[in-house]
Every structure is written in structure tokens, then in C-alpha cells.
Specification:
Oligomer: single chain
Number of helices: 21
Distance between the termini: 57 Å
Radius of gyration: 30 Å
Structural class: alpha+beta
Strand order of the largest sheet: 1-12-7-8-6-4-5
Helix content: 25-40%
Largest sheet: 7 strands, mixed
Number of strands: 40
Length: 833
């Protein structure tokens, strides 16, 4: 009964206690697997697969036979084995319910009925999960198939997915056929798949390629680009070409209609044809296109024209597109009913944020999905907590939000990088099926099934590296993670299956160390040697799926060979020669242990006191630090400042649109609120690169929050020296400083502090005490915990980090508030009282 309750929490279906079914006992099967006498080939495959798993679990051989369905483990569809009370739940209407299924157990019969063969596959997976099977990660080592003498099941349920398409796919693709098969099995066994096959990818370039002769004959179908005299700025003519279309050309519109209609003529099994523009810019600038309106208006108008032709010739078929890049925003008109729009969770341009786009598109389209970036190797490099797929809290919030706002599909760009993201991918798969699934139950089930006696230290390990906890990657963090795995290994010493999974994570920590080496300054030859180690690691672990080996293979030259000539035999694209780093077999347990022991010795946890402080900030009359410069505060992205007023208006100024390239975005928004969130003042400022004076009346003396949202266009803030003002740090959040921002920042060292401890990713810098004396000189750090002894009499003072340009900064035992000058500083009330 306990496992039934856990599965109900994991998958959220409606189920009641049924009559118990005993499938096997003492190594003998007590029921055959029964198929309809006109079973499909797919049903026979599924029956054989189920028999194989049941035998692995119980050691019993299950016979597969044809029958009437009155007894046995019955597999089929409602047409083959009708269940009147499931008629509504398993009714297929369009794409709805293609994956629906029902399971009912009894003393003589177990019914596994799918609305279709796809639904039957889901039912079998659900039954195997009930029996304790899990496919946690793609490699065989992470498949859990329990051993039991007696197989007992109690189930009475029907279920179907909340989203019609649920795909976590690997950019750069699987490494080889084995990787593809492992990924497909992992997807299928974690209830992912497509009742509705989404086709929204970039398509204009494909249309041009497939209709090459017509485009060669009619260059006017392609985008027009005016040519301008560089000296006078006057138009001198123009050219047509590229991979964008002149959407106002009537013959081009007809060509696109024909393309879509032909697409379904040739592929009747497809649900959707994409009319998404090719990637990048370069849209047509001919007078007719410009007269139609902005790019979203033009792009989506063409989609509607094609959708009408598809509706006429292929009723029920869809036309897909993204809300992405230059055409992120909805048009002024409503999209045709057979248009499917996926909103991308990144790379959007225009007046609205991603979440605002979801709200906006609701009014313009009847069918909506989400393109989510769970991992992009170029962004995360597979480092701990660096991607959305590594953030369980993010997934637990966002996926239900998408479902609540009408999303019926999710396409998730990711990678074969389960070392940092595996638990997140598992959580995402469950939530896409059922957005109300219990995330804590999913995580607990993962720890218990994967690690058994080592579940607790492994929970600590995963939570330590989870993106929601903002892991600060450093030797200190690696030391703590090594300690977690060492404890887990001791607890699971008699469990080879668990140790094999822990080995994967030991190798992952080795990868993190290699990446940290690449992020430190190195001579060319040293960098080549480190990179070669990384590449051979990617090759040797390609079927462990710890890190995204194909992503590394595809991107290493871009990021790590800049200015360095690549050895000729490194180029994996040269099919006619051996690739030098395609060498070595998979790591043995002995090799893994030797690597891990070196890591245990290498990484040392720093010793320091951790302190937390209130946000009850008060101004203090600190003296100016001799010879210390003022911080220039220029940012890209939203930030918050805290001001203190004695009741007088807040006086400040903002320079907006600091990045000229992004001045086509919406205006910068600012808001001043009281400490409890009550609004005081707000407004919008144009992205003109100019300074704008603000004088904000406040109702009383006290703390006020200033929030600035620049839509990514960059902004600078300024106010009179001595104004009580600080900006809060957020643990793990990257600071996008511009134009020398944070060349000097000031922080407060509480009284009684013996050793300042902080994490930094940034340039070489000096640490100055309250008298402006240099107490430490630090080299550039890709990310490390720094400790600095506090000289006598220098606690209870404002200190300075001089010449620091940082990406991340976090204090472990000082308040995480920075000031532009010492005399601006505010500190938590408890530290001055």
C-alpha cells in the first residue's frame, strides 16, 4: 500500500484501493499475459517486453497468449476489451487521450487498457513502476529493477497526461546509435512523448532549399536589403537574398501555401508543419513589408495565410511557429484556430518579458506551448546549478505555471548531462505529465531508489549542488561534495549497484575540476593539455551521460581554443582520419576511485564562521575612507537598491538605454516601494542613453526599495555622496556590470569578526580595511572562497574591495549589502544597537 501512495503522489492519477492481484510467487507465474486474437504487432512487442521485465523481477516465466480477456494480465484497447465505465476516460478526440490508460487489478485478472497502443505502453510503464522499477537516468546503471519472489499489485485507476507533448531533447544530438536508443528508452519509461507531434523549428531556409528553382527564378521572393552610401547615408539601391522572405509578395505567399499543403500530402502521419522564420535577423525592408508594420505583424500574417490553406486542404492539421527573437510579440490580429505557437523562454525581443508574453499571447492564439531551455551547454558548461534543469525549485514553480496558463506542450532543450541535471530532468518529466505531482515525493523516491542506505548523504549532495540553493563553485564546495560521496560510499559498501551510480558522480566532480582548470589563465601548451584531458573524459564517459559529451565536442574549439591553433588530428569532423582524443575505454571502478581519492586530498574545505543578518537596515555616520574611489554602478538587468530617507524626497538619477543596440526594447521601468511593498512612486524612462532626474516623495522616514527593470538595455544610477543607499547581493546571481562597474565596492565588517569570508568570481583586487590600508592582494578568481584575517581594531568598520570587477560575490559572515562609498553604507540594526 505504501508504494501505491508514493506513486499516486509522483504521478497524481486518480486511484482507489482495488482487489489484490498476485502475479507471481516463489519463482512461478500465476497469470499469463493475454492479448486479443487480433493484436497489433506493437501490442505483441509490448507483451514480450512486459514478460521480460516481470521475469527479471520475479524469476518467473510469463506466457504470452491470445484470449478473451476474462482472466490473466490483459493487454489491449477498449475496442478489443471493452470496459464500459472507462468509456469517457479513454475516449480519443483528436489528439486528446491518445496516451490515456486504465489499470484495474483483481484476483483473476489485471486489466491494462490503453486508449491506443501508445496509451497501452504508458499503462505497462505504470505497472512496472508500481512494482518498483525506475529508469532514473539513461544508462543501464541507473535503471532500478527490484528482485521479489512475490509480485502483488493493488490498482484501480485511469490516467492521461496534462500536456500533449513532453520532450526533453539533447542539443547537438546523441553521440551515436546506442546513445539515441538509451535516450529514447529513458524518455519512454519516464512517460514522455508526443500525442501531438510539434513542428515549430526554423523552416524558411528549408522552404527556400526545397523550392530552390522557384527562388532562383524569382529573387523578388527573398528579403530586400537597402544599400546605403557610408559617407552620405543616402540609399543607393538594394539587393535581395539571404534566408528571409518578402512576405508581402503575393506569389511568395502562394508558394508557402503550396509548400504546407504538399508537406501534408507527402506526410499524412504528421500533425503540424512549421512556418517558423529562419534564425537570426535580416527581415525584408521593402516598402510593402515596412508598410505592413513591425516584424511580428509580418511574420504572423504570413503564418495565418498558410494556416487558411492548410485548414481548407487538410482539416485538423496545424501550422506551427515560435514566439521568438524579433517576432516574439503577438500581432494586432487573432491567429487562425489551426496555428500552434510555442513561446521561447529565452531570446525574446520587444516590449514584454517572457512571462508577460505568455499572458499576451493568450489573447491571440487558441493553441499554445512552451519552448524551455533546461540546459544549453554554451551557457552552463555543465557546471553545478548553472542551468534551469539543475534547479528543482524553478521546475516546481514554472511547469505548473505553464500548465495553468494554457500550455499544452513543452519542448525542452537540454543535454546528456545528468551529472548536474538528472534529478531536475526526472522532476520535469513527472510535472509535465501531472503538474500537481508532489515534487518532494519525487525527490525522496529518487534518493531511496537510487542510493538505498546512502540516501541521506546523497540528498545532502544533490541539494548542495541544486541550482535553487545557488551553489558557489569553488574548491571549498568541491571539498564538501567529495565528503558527501565518501560518506555515501561507506554506507553503500555492500551495494555494487549503488556504488556504480556514486562512481558516476565522482567522475562528475572530476569534470568540474577540469573545467575550473580551463577557466584559469594558462599558457597555450598547458591549456591544450588540460583541454585534451577534458575531451578524452567526454569520449570515455559518453555512454554514462554524466556530461553532455556531444555539446563539449561541438563547442570546445569556440570557447577554449581562441587564438590557439588546434592540432590537426583533434578535428572530429574529419571523418577520414582518427580523432586523437577518441581514445580509452570507459573508466573502471578502480580508476574512478583513484581519481576520487586524489580529489579528496586536493580539495580542502575552508574554516570560517557563517553568520546571517536581518534586513532591518539603518544608516550609520561612517567616515569616508581615505583615497578610496567611488563605485560606478552600471548594470544590465533588473536590480534592487535600498535607500533610507529621513522623510525628505529621494533624489537620484538614472541613465537608461546604456546599450545602444537594445534601445528598441520597452522603456526602463522603475518603482519605489515601502519596506513592506506598498507603492510610493513608479514610472517609465525612454531608452535614450540620457540621464533622467528622479525626485520621489516618501510618506515618512524609513527604508525604501528602488527596483529598476531595464529589459536588458543597461542602466546607470547616481546620487549624492553620503546618501544612505546600498544594493543587496543575491547569492549565486551573476552581476552584469558594464563600463567599469564595481571597480571599488564597500562592505561592512561586523564587530567581533576574526576572519572575513567571501566568495568571488572576478578580477584581481585588493582588500582594504577601514583605514584604507591594504590587508590582502588577491589574484583573479574563476570562483573561490576567500578568507582574510581582520587586524585588531578593524572590525566594526566599512572595508573596500578595490579594483574588483566581479561576476559573483557573496559574503558568508558580513552583511551582503554593497555601497558606492563608505559614507553611504547602511547596516542591519542589530549590529549597531
Amino acid at each position: 500500500m505504501l508504494i501505491l501512495l508514493v506513486l499516486a503522489a509522483l504521478l497524481g492519477s486518480s486511484c482507489a484501493v482495488a482487489d489484490q492481484a498476485v502475479l507471481a510467487d516463489g519463482g512461478g507465474a500465476l497469470m499469463p499475459i493475454v492479448l486479443h486474437h487480433e493484436a497489433t504487432d506493437r501490442q505483441r512487442e509490448l507483451a514480450d517486453e512486459l514478460a521480460g521485465y516481470l521475469q527479471r523481477i520475479s524469476r518467473a516465466e510469463f506466457e504470452v497468449q491470445a484470449g478473451g480477456g476474462s482472466s490473466g494480465i490483459v493487454l489491449g484497447t477498449p475496442e478489443q476489451f471493452p470496459v464500459p465505465e472507462w468509456r469517457e476516460e479513454l475516449a480519443v478526440e483528436g489528439h486528446e487521450a491518445l496516451e490515456a490508460f486504465g489499470i484495474r487489478t483483481g484476483p483473476e485478472r489485471v486489466l491494462l487498457i490503453g486508449a491506443t497502443d501508445l496509451g497501452l505502453d504508458r499503462a505497462i510503464t505504470r505497472l512496472l513502476m508500481e512494482l518498483g522499477c525506475r529508469w532514473l537516468w539513461p544508462s543501464e546503471a541507473w535503471h532500478v529493477v527490484p528482485q521479489r519472489d512475490r509480485l502483488v499489485v493493488d490498482l484501480d485507476l485511469t490516467d492521461r497526461p496534462a500536456m500533449l507533448s513532453r520532450v526533453i531533447w539533447w542539443d547537438w544530438g546523441p553521440w551515436d546509435q546506442q546513445a539515441r536508443e538509451d535516450w529514447e528508452r529513458w524518455m519512454r519509461r519516464n512517460l514522455m512523448g508526443e500525442s501531438l507531434k510539434i513542428r515549430c523549428g526554423h523552416a524558411w531556409q528549408r522552404i527556400i532549399a526545397e523550392r530552390r528553382a522557384q527562388f532562383d527564378e524569382h529573387p523578388e521572393y527573398l528579403a530586400y536589403r537597402p544599400e546605403v552610401d557610408e559617407e552620405t547615408g543616402e540609399a543607393t539601391g538594394g539587393t535581395r537574398g539571404g534566408n528571409k522572405l518578402c512576405v508581402t509578395n503575393p506569389e511568395l505567399v502562394e508558394l508557402c501555401r503550396d509548400y504546407a499543403v504538399d508537406y501534408f500530402d507527402e506526410r499524412p502521419e504528421e500533425d503540424m508543419v512549421s512556418l517558423e522564420p529562419s534564425d537570426g535577423g535580416g527581415h525584408c525592408q521593402c516598402p510593402d513589408c515596412l508598410a505592413m508594420g513591425p516584424i511580428p505583424q509580418r511574420v504572423h500574417w504570413l503564418t495565418n495565410q498558410v494556416a487558411r490553406a492548410v485548414a481548407e486542404h487538410h482539416p485538423g492539421k496545424l501550422v506551427g511557429t515560435y514566439a521568438y527573437h524579433l517576432h516574439s510579440e503577438p500581432p494586432s490580429f487573432v491567429m487562425e484556430p489551426n496555428v500552434y505557437v510555442q513561446i521561447t523562454a529565452g531570446f525574446t525581443r520587444g516590449q514584454y518579458s517572457f512571462l508577460e508574453l505568455i499572458e499576451q499571447w493568450h489573447e491571440h492564439v487558441s493553441q499554445l506551448g512552451i519552448y524551455e531551455y533546461l540546459n544549453v551547454w554554451a551557457w552552463s558548461r555543465d557546471m553545478p546549478g548553472a542551468s534551469r534543469g539543475a534547479n528543482v525549485e524553478y521546475l516546481a514553480e514554472r511547469i505548473p505555471y505553464y500548465a495553468e496558463h494554457g500550455a499544452t506542450t513543452m519542448s525542452c532543450e537540454s543535454g546528456a548531462n545528468y551529472g548536474p541535471n538528472g534529478l531536475g530532468y526526472l522532476v520535469a518529466s513527472r510535472l509535465m505529465w501531472d503538474p500537481e505531482a508532489d515534487v518532494e515525493a519525487i525527490c525522496s523516491d529518487f534518493y531511496q531508489k537510487a542510493f538505498g542506505p546512502a540516501a541521506e548523504p546523497m540528498r545532502r549532495y544533490f541539494e548542495r549542488l541544486d541550482g535553487g540553493n545557488e551553489p558557489l563553485v569553488s574548491d571549498h564546495l568541491l571539498a564538501l561534495a567529495h565528503q558527501d560521496l565518501a560518506e555515501a560510499s561507506r554506507l553503500a559498501a555492500d551495494r555494487p549497484d549503488v556504488l556504480r551510480r556514486i562512481d558516476d558522480l565522482k567522475l562528475y566532480l572530476h569534470y568540474v575540476g577540469l573545467m575550473r582548470e580551463l577557466n584559469t589563465p594558462q599558457e597555450d601548451q598547458e591549456r591544450l593539455e588540460t583541454l585534451f584531458d577534458l575531451l578524452t573524459f567526454a569520449y570515455r564517459t559518453r555512454h554514462r551521460y554524466i556530461v553532455h559529451s556531444t555539446g563539449i565536442r561541438g563547442r570546445y574549439a569556440t570557447y577554449y581554443l581562441r587564438g590557439i591553433e588546434q592540432p590537426e588530428d583533434w578535428d572530429w569532423r574529419n571523418k577520414g582520419a582518427e580523432t586523437a582524443w577518441y581514445t580509452g575505454e570507459d573508466y573502471t571502478h578502480q580508476e574512478v576511485e583513484a581519481i576520487f581519492q586524489r580529489g579528496l586530498q586536493r580539495y580542502e574545505a575552508k574554516q570560517f564562521e557563517r553568520r546571517s543578518f536581518s534586513d532591518d537596515l539603518v544608516p550609520v555616520d561612517f567616515e569616508a575612507m581615505p583615497g578610496a574611489p567611488r563605485c560606478r554602478q552600471i548594470f544590465q538587468g533588473s536590480r534592487e537598491f535600498v535607500f533610507y530617507s529621513d522623510g525628505a524626497p529621494l533624489q537620484l538619477r538614472l541613465q537608461t538605454g546604456w546599450i545602444a543596440h537594445y534601445r528598441d526594447r520597452r522603456p526602463t521601468r522603475w518603482q519605489v516601494a515601502g519596506w513592506e511593498g506598498e507603492p510610493v512612486g513608479s514610472g517609465e524612462l525612454p531608452l535614450d542613453g540620457e540621464w533622467h532626474e528622479l525626485s520621489v516623495q516618501v510618506p515618512a522616514a524609513g527604508r525604501y526599495r528602488l527596483h529598476v527593470d531595464d529589459a536588458g538595455a543597461g542602466w546607470q544610477i547616481d546620487y549624492a555622496p553620503g546618501t544612505p543607499a546600498v544594493w543587496p547581493l543575491e547569492k549565486g546571481r551573476r552581476i552584469y556590470g558594464l563600463g567599469g562597474t564595481t571597480a571599488a565596492v564597500y562592505f561592512y565588517v561586523p564587530a567581533g569578526t576574526e576572519r572575513v569570508a567571501y566568495y568571488v568570481e572576478g578580477t584581481a583586487h585588493s582588500v582594504l580595511d577601514g583605514d584604507g590600508n591594504t590587508v590582502a592582494e588577491l589574484e583573479a578568481e574563476p570562483g573561490e572562497v576567500i578568507t582574510v584575517e581582520v587586524p585588531e581594531g578593524q572590525d566594526g568598520r566599512v572595508w573596500c574591495l578595490r579594483d574588483l570587477k566581479f561576476r559573483r560575490l557573496w559574503f558568508y559572515n558580513c552583511p551582503n549589502y554593497l555601497a558606492a562609498l563608505a559614507q553611504d553604507m547602511m547596516v542591519p540594526r542589530e549590529l549597531v544597537e
